[in-house]
Each structure stands twice: as structure tokens, then as C-alpha cells.
């Protein structure tokens, strides 16, 4: 076997490009006014300011006479100085900026007057996944959709054109959405039980309601008859007064979950009454069914004295849980309540069947529901398992039943109450409301290659969405119920991850399942390295600078079985490309590097500097070394401690040792001698290993989520979850994010909390008589990015939706950037932050200012770049599709309408070179003209238009005698 000497760590998430070259933070020296220099002195930092006239500037409390050029002399190289700049404008308004000052650096910062109207982008990128919920506004003007968990957005669409008008970003997943009867407000329910009421005209959140902490699914939110009602997954229906927004009541079928569990799936308000109907699923609890409850299991586990006793208890609990799932009793219910009294009026239940969709007639007399047999019920035919049933709400009497329908995904009454309209698979069905007889069924073609989706009939309009297998993109369409052709179709442009290639003006971009090489300045696709196929799923791509390769990670799957079945092995495949030529230079599979399906995916993969070896930390908790040429496993390691096998968390190559550093669960119990190490140095060519890294003394436990070797500084960096020693405390220990820094030889260098990018919540427990065991809840982790000079970290805090720039040595947070981020990349002085919606914000790390935003559309070839001041560059299609929003109105104007004053070819090239280009005209003064037709009058006949003479026509406006044109 070849030696491992000379390996260098290049993690798949490690950034490429420039980052600030310092490590320590200090107070900046008082700045002074300096003369323009052709070259910045090695001990000086210069900040060039572009600010409005009569603006007063204060730096670290010291007023500056020369406000256009700030100079910090006498700086020590290798340090970061944090300075506070305060701007006071001529109208008395103030603004504060933090600048990271560094020796030998020239910075630029443009600050606008607060009264200047900034352009607002109305991005037409849609959701990053299939919508979960939708609603039509009662006035028929708008459609609202939600993107569910991971997308966290609600979008307001123009029903007539399909233009995206508003985009509301939430901290949590959002499923349910509804409009108020006057269409002035849209109500969005989050996965944590919060209801946000935002104004449709402005997009501003006006009110917030709390409905506990349980998820409110799509279809479980409504506003009508003066009430707002929401039914959550705990089975509780919350009702508020729509005018005062005060809680009226909480309706619950069972007072607690001791005897029965209850889950809510939908709610409808009965017109002209104070009644509502909730769709609930009730099932007997494990205690009622005679099985061990989770609380009982926890108590018995805490009382266990040995590890064998804990393992036997775990096996017994798993066995009882599986038996309970098979034997439990469950009921599907429609429950009618009186809001005023809180009384349960009646329950609708059909033994042996489950309710699906349901609707209440406009006059409040009929309740219609779709029903089906539970999966596996074994009916004679699939069609016989589905039917519609109608009851009278006044007395609960069944009045009609239809046993000839398919399974329905949407169900609504017509506005006159005479018909029930339903959607099933690929056809729209109309039933007579009185007897549910089917009177019409029309099949509609799909949206492109779209095979699945949902529809919501309202105002004679059908909304449908789904995944286009051919183009690998989410797509939504809207059409009239009577027309076979869609009125409009929109594509959802899935977010793209960026990675800048050092020494090249290229970007490695993952967009819509494809891996592209893109020119950073022109955004032109240089070459396509990988496009998705039917039998493979893209898991990620990364650039490894030492071999100079792009590595694409896919999983091989069967088209008929997208997700592997339990216990079924899965092959992880890696395609290796030369980015300069696009040639595939390697291809290897790891069929024997993973075991069962729930452990099938690799936690990480690295390539040695000579390109001969790959190192994987697998989901079956081992470290594996493979030959990249063949994919053959040449070494496999799982650390041992006192004869017990430990779980591998991460592994990295260590240059100069011929070994691999493997991270595991490290512990430092008071009664444990010696402590359980965190890191082990393993030599794959001989199989030898030895303990190398220990847990810091102030920690009880440490497990890494991210580990990297820093070759320039010969340090090992690990970020993960830790529990601390708590004097006088025993039993439960809180898990928090933590960062550890070791010398490559083993001694700890630094240890400090690092909450960003770690855990939302977590708990561990320690029993003095048993081995340590821990449980992590709601893990939320985005791999950090390390600067090339190995001094700074970029961490994402998923709990706060923030990005933090942190000093590796001190742990101090140098800058906090708001916004949800799904990937990072560095290029020179710019941090690219992708948000998962097809856009990336380019932020100057030194000043914290956003300098540009890149939008790449689903076709991959269409793109747009725009600065906060309104300058833009991009393809013609993107300039027409992406729009500016005028003020707080719903008026959208394509950016191409501002071509004359704001189009700047080569805009990104200037940004990446450190320039901060500004427009010659203020955005507020360059609005497009407002056109009002004054002749002919409505119903009149137009005279032939006179062709404009030279000088009368320009690119953005043509004036004639019959048209009155004025600037806004």
C-alpha cells in the first residue's frame, strides 16, 4: 500500500478563496485623516467612504474631519481591529456600522441616505420544494402558497398572471395558510403553532397569535364568520375573535393523552353560525393498550445499574412499541363544536373507514366528506374503497352517499352550493350536492411532464403543482376549469450552492440537481459536469484544490423505488472531474462502505493530496479508506476503548504522520480514570492506532459534528456538542455547541462555546453506575467554513437564522449577518450566502454590507445580478422575469425597464475586484413612467398612431398625442 505521507485535509465543506488574515481581536487605534496613497502601507488600513453630503462621521467615538477617507495607521499584522462607525445624516437620523480593520487592506463602503428609496427585488423563484398548502383570496385576485419545513416561506401570487408579489420568510416551517374574508390579510401558521397575520398590500406582519407549540398542517386553518380557527396535530382546535384577535376557546376531544392520543387534520367554520367541524384522528394510548409508556421507559432506564440492563430494557421497549403499532385501535372522526359554549354537538364516524377531505355548503346545511378504507383493508376493488358521504349538520342525519369515486385530493362546494367539485389524480369531477350523483368528469393534461399534484377549485380556477421528472424542477400551473390550456405556468428555481475555485475565475454551482462550472464575472456556464439521471440522486459536490478535482457524490437508486427499503444496501457513487477540461477522471462506488439503509449515506468524504486515496466517515460509524481508482476498501477502523467499540463522528487526513485522525465520543467523567479519548491516530497501512486527543478538563463529554486539520498552523479543529461539569448537579446535563482546538501532537490549545450551527436543543444523562449515554433532539447543523489563512470560521445559527463570523483562536463573534443560509462560499473579499431559493447574497465581510445578489434561474443559463442601489447585469430573459417592487404596493416593474440608467455590463467583475459601483441616478428619481390613456375614451375608436419622429422615441418610453405620460 502506498504511504499516506503528504496528505492534506481538504474537507468537502471547506471554503475556497480569500478571508481576513487575522486571528486576534483588539480595539483599533484612533484613526486619523491620511493622504491618498497609491499603495496601502503594510501597517495601515484605509476605508474609502461614499456618503450623502452633510453627513457627520464618528469613528470609535472620535469625530472625523475628512469623512471620505478614513485611515488607521500603525496596525499590527495578523490582528483584526473592530471599529464602530456612526453616521449622522442631515435630517438627524443615525446609522451605525461595524468595520473589521486589518493592516494592508483598503476597504470601500457606500452608505445611503435613509430617505432614499431602495429598490426591492420581487424574485420569481418560487419555493425550494413542493408547496404544502394554498389558498385563494375571496376577491379572486391572489393566491397564497406555503413551502413547508425547510422552505419556511409563504408566497403571494397574482392569480391572473402568476407573478410572485410577496415573499414572507418565517423562522419555522409553514404549511397552513388562509385569507380573511375581506382579502386584506393572509394568515400563515408555522410548525411551532404561531399564526402570523400579514397585510397583503404591504407584506408587513400586523399581528401574531399563539396556538401552543404544535404543528398546524395544511387545511387546518380558516377565517370566516368573525372567527379565526386552527386545528393542530395535538388535536386541539384554537378559536380567536377575528376583530379583537383574542382567544375565544380551545376545543379538545380528550383532556389529556393519558387514555387516548388525538391528532388534528383540518377545520372548517360553519357559515351563519358559531359552529365548526374539526377532522380528528383518535387512537388508544400505549397505556390504555397495556404497553410500556415512554415515561415509564425513561424512569426504568434511569434506575438501571448496568449497561446490560439498559440494553435489555431497550430491546423490550422496541418489541412492545412494534406490537403496539400493530394492535392499537384508531378512529377517524369529524367533530362538530359550538364555539360560543365550547360544547361538542355531535361526532361523525364510519367504522372501518377514514375521512379524507371535507367541506361545508355555503348555506351551512350540508357536510360532505370523502372516505376510504385504511391501507391494507383488503377490499374487493380499489374503487370500492372510496366514496363520498353527506350529512345534515342540524341533526347529523346522513342524506347521500356515492360509492363510485376515486380517492380525492381536493373537495369544495361551488359558490351557489348546487354542486360539489372534487379532484382525483388527473380528472376534475362534479357532483350534484343533493344526492352526490356524478354528473361530469373531465380529464386534464399534466403540467409538462408533471404526473402528480394537487388542485384547489375556486372561482372557476384550478391550481396544480408537482415535480417535473424530465426537467428536475418543481412546477406550478393555474388554469380555468373550462379550458384545457394553462393560463400560466411557473417554475420553482431550486437553490444553488456555490464554491469559488482559487486561481480561477470560476464558480462550482449546484443548481436544480446539476453541477456546473460558471464564470464568476459573467455568470456564463463554462461547462456542465453533471446532470441528474433517473437512477441517481445528487447528494453534493465539492472542489479539492490539491488534486485539482471536482468530486460529485451521488446515490444509485432504482426509478421505481426512489427511497431504499429498510435493510436494503445502497451504493454511494463518486464521480471525479477535471474542472479545466470537464473530463471525468475517476468513478468509484462504495457498495461495501455502508451497511443497512438507515446507515447508508456517508457522513463526509475527503481526498488525499495525491488523489490516490479517499477517506470516508460512514453512517455505520466507521472510518474507511479507499482507492479512488477502484473504490476498493483498503482500511476500516472503529476505535476501541476498554474493549468496547466506539462510534466514529469524523475523520481527517493528517499530513506528515502517514495516519488518519479519527474522532469519537470523548468523555471525562469524574470517576473515570483515564478519561475516554476523543481522537485516535490510525495508520491504515499497518492497522496500528493510538489515542491522541483528550476532552478538555472543563467538559464532561464532547462529540464532533465537524472536524478539520489546519495544515498551515498544524492544529486540529473540531466543532460539535458538549456537556459541561456542573458543580452540585447530577443526572441531566444540557448539551450545547462547543469548539475545541488541539495541537497536532495532542495538547489542547483552546476550548470555547460555539452555539451557532450546532444544536437547537439536547439533553444528556449520566448514571453513576452505568456507561455514559446521550440523546440529541432536533439536531440542526450546517458545516462551518474555515478561512484559507485558518484564522476565522463562518458558522450558521439555525435557531436564530443568523450567520456568525468567529475568530478561531478566541471564539469571539466578529460579525453577525441576518438571514437563513443553506451554504457558504468565499471569493476574495466577498462571502456568498445561498438561502435555498435560487439566490445568493454577496456580502463584504469587512464592512458587513451586501454588495450584490445573484439570481440563477431554472434553465441554468439565465441569471441576474443586482446591487442594493439598483445596478444590474444579466440575461434578457432574467431581466424581464425578475422585477423591482415599487414602494409597499403590489406594483411590479421588470428590472429591464430601468435599462438606461441602471444596466451595467461586467457588474460582477467589478464587485469581485473590490469596487463598489454606484448608479449615476437615484433609484427613486428613475421610476418608470405612469401611463394614463386619455383618448379615445372607453368604448371609443382609436385613430391611427402617428409614427414618432427622431428624438421622440427612447428605449423606455414612446409618447403620442393620445397618451398622457408622467413621472411618478
Description:
Helices cover 5% and strands 45% of the residues. It is mostly beta strands and 968 residues long. The strands form 19 sheets. Strands 53, 56, 57, 58, 59, 60 and 61 form a 7-stranded antiparallel sheet that branches. A hairpin with a 5-residue loop joins β37 and β38 (506-511). α1 (294-302) packs antiparallel against α2. The termini are far apart. The model is unreliable at 1-27, 32-37, 376-383, 447-452, 559-569, 593-601, 757-780 and 945-968 (pLDDT under 50).
Give the helices and strands, then pairings.
Layout: E1 24-27, E2 45-50, E3 56-59, E4 62-63, E5 69-72, E6 79-88, E7 94-101, E8 105-110, E9 120-122, E10 133-136, E11 142-146, E12 153-158, E13 164-169, E14 174-179, E15 185-190, E16 194-199, E17 205-210, E18 221-224, E19 227-231, E20 236-241, E21 247-252, E22 260-269, E23 275-284, H1 294-302, H2 307-327, E24 330-338, E25 344-348, E26 354-360, E27 366-372, E28 386-392, E29 398-402, E30 410-413, E31 419-424, E32 427-432, E33 438-443, E34 461-468, E35 473-480, E36 488-492, E37 497-500, E38 506-511, E39 514-519, E40 525-530, E41 536-544, E42 549-556, E43 571-577, E44 584-589, E45 602-607, E46 613-618, E47 623-627, E48 633-637, E49 640-641, E50 644-645, E51 648-654, E52 659-664, E53 666-667, E54 679-682, E55 689-693, E56 699-710, E57 715-724, E58 732-743, E59 748-753, E60 759-765, E61 773-779, E62 785-786, E63 792-797, E64 802-807, E65 813-818, E66 823-827, E67 830-834, E68 839-844, E69 850-856, E70 863-866, E71 872-874, H3 876-881, E72 883-885, E73 892-894, H4 899-902, H5 907-912, E74 930-933, E75 963-966
Parallel strand pairs: 1-6, 2-8
Antiparallel strand pairs: 2-5, 3-4, 3-6, 6-7, 9-72, 10-11, 11-12, 12-13, 14-15, 15-16, 16-17, 18-19, 19-20, 20-21, 22-23, 23-24, 24-25, 26-27, 27-28, 28-29, 30-31, 31-32, 32-33, 34-35, 35-36, 37-38, 38-39, 39-40, 41-42, 42-43, 43-44, 45-46, 46-47, 47-48, 49-50, 51-52, 52-54, 53-56, 54-55, 56-57, ...
